Amino acid sequence: MNLKEKILFLRSQGLSQSEISNRTGIAQSSVSKIENDEQLDVSYSKGAALDRLVSERTQQNQILASA
Description:
mainly alpha, 434 Repressor (Amino-terminal Domain), 73% helix
């Protein structure tokens, strides 16, 4: 998944741009720009935080699906 796909996945899970920003450290304006193909990258640490958040949501979905 690229950055945009990760953001869109999290948005489809009900997270707002602000929530994604707060949980990853990526500025809300950058989250918006990523969604709109105006920004293609973020710092390594923020990208890693985004990866962790996507992983958490994916694991939660798997747990719910197996219940």
